[in-house]
Every structure is written in C-alpha cells, then in structure tokens.
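Tutorial handout. Part one gives the primary structure; part two gives the three-dimensional structure as tokens.
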Amino acid sequence: MADYYDILGVPRGADEKEIRQAYRRLARQHHPDVNPGDDAAAERFKSINAAYEVLSDADKRAKYDRYGDQWQHAEHFEQQGGPDFSQFFRGGNAGHGSGGFSFNIGGASLSDLLGGLGGIRDSGGMGERPRPRPAEIPVDISLEEADAGTTRRVNLPGGRRLEVKIPPGIADGGRVHIAAGNESGGEFNLVVSVLPHQRFERQGADLHTSVDVPLLDAMLGGTAQVRTLRGQIELTLPPETQNGRRFRLAGQGMARLNDSERRGDLYATVNVILPSNLTEEQRDLFERMRALETEKEPSTKE
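Part two.
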C-alpha cells in the first residue's frame, strides 16, 4: 500500500498548512473534471483523497504514524498490548520500501503478524465491511459567495453532473456533504476554499477593513463611507479621531452558518490621509497651528 505522505509529496514532519496546500494542488491536477476519461487520474484522485482524509485529522494521523496502513486497528492493538510498528514507518529501516509498508520481520510478513492478534479482519474488525470514505471535490468561491451562499455544478465520477448548494456563512475548508446515491459512485464532500479578498479580512463571522479619512475630518469630525459586503454605509466620526482608531459596525459582517439572519460585525480601522501639495495659504495655516501648539506647552523654566 502506498505511503500517504508519499502520495501527497510531503515530509512526515509536514504541518497542517503544508498538507492542505499539497492536497489542493494535487486534487485540482488529478480531478476527473480536468482529466475526463482518464482512469489512472481517477484512481490517483481517490488515493489523494484517502491520504488527505487521514493526514488532515490529528487523531487519525497519529494512529497512521504508529501503525501504518493498519491504523484503523489501533484501538485493538492498544487494548491487546499488540506490537508498535512505528519504527518501521519512519523510513531508513531494512525492509521498508520508500513507497509503503511491505516488509518482513524475521521471515514473517506484516499480515502474518497481524493475523495472530485475535480476529482482526480486513473488513474492519466486526465482520462488516466499513463504509467507503466519501470522495472529496475541491471548489473555490469568493468571500461574497461565502456570505450570501451560492451553487456549484460538479462532475461526479461516472459522468453525472450535479448542482450543489453552498450555504451562507461557510468557512474556508468547510465541507458540503453530497449523498449522490450508488448510481453516481457513492457519497461525496465538496471541500470549499474561500478566496482571499482585497479589502476584507475574515475572522470567523467578523470582518476587518480600513477606511481612509481626510485629516480635517479626523480633527474636526465628519463622516466617512465604509464599504461592506452589501454596499456602503455612513460612519460618523467624532472630533479628534485618532489614526488607527477602530470602529465596530454591528451586524455588518459575515452571515453565520446555519443562522444567516444573525450576522457578525465589521471592524473599520481609520487611516488618516495627510494633505499634500499645500498652497501657501494652507502652509501658513499649519504654521499658525504649530505656533499655537507651542504656546500651549507648559514652561519648563523655574
């Protein structure tokens, strides 16, 4: 059986981000939509999904690192005091090929050793074959689509096309389950990637942005137009608004998953814009202001 790390092309010490990036790159490359009629690509796509499902889950990955392709039997091993094969799964050992775990120990194969541990069955341990893992289909959506909800038409293995609804408020990395039926090859998960936005930064259901404010409006008070995902709203600025001050605009953030009527908040940080290309009159006014500020400073003389 091929090593999951080799399938994704990542080292054993790879972090979650490296594993996720490798999965997305490979999934797009070998997706059936990109390789219609290519059976080898379809098999590769299934292997990539299987590897990612295990390595993206901290608990499953820990079991895989210790027990290799028998990680699903980890609980049985631990209850029975069975062998720990982790020394053979880290590479560099005799009998451990770079592509998987087909090795012999003292003339006995791994399957021979496992066969003596008390009724471990290939089907999963209870006499019933485990349900196949849902295949994963990656899709990209914009932040606006994540807020409002959207749909995607996807090609399922077997040639069937299906329109899938993506709910409002879905997060980056969120999954939409597709119960496609046996005629379409079983179950699927749509794995959603929310693309970065040039104006907004998302934190849960809240959004963060900046708003440019002229110097005089910041000093004397005024209004500023703040862009939201649903248009623009007017922000009232009090006099002497400082650069970097953050205003909370309640209910102007993202829709919340499964409760789109309740929205997060939008936080707008003030970016004061200094004037440029001053006229002589404007420069004189600023000089007078500086003189007045100097007069206000308390004397340091005794």
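Part three, for discussion. The mean pLDDT is 79. The longest strand covers residues 206-214.
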